[in-house]
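User: For my dataset I need records formatted as: sequence, then structure tokens, nothing else. Please produce one.
Assistant:
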Amino acid sequence: MTKNKLELVATLLALGAGALDFGTGLGLVAAPGLMLQLMGAGALAAEPTIYLRWIGAFVAAVGFNYLWALWRRDVALLRHVLELTIFFRLAAGAYSAWAVASGALPLAWVSVPLTDFFLAATQTWLVRRGVFATAR
């Protein structure tokens, strides 16, 4: 794959991941019941909802990082976002995979580890291929 195609893939991935996380995070903060319904997960009692909103703030912040780098048109910053969020995605994916596998979270939550592991793998591949490396 050529450098230009890799950078296009990285840019589209950042746009998609950023919009997904930012939108999901804001949705979890503003309307957690609706977001859970859209995910196919059950509703939560009042106390856990506050924690879900808190998590939503962090998810939105991760998504905002991708969008911020794109908005600034800063390829060095975008490369750093792609590198750093790999670790966040692996941590979130591993925990949520364990929670689903152990029955702590319903099967409807399986989309979380699948998405995080897919994005971590794709971002790792892009970084190893040298996407935006000349911007360093």
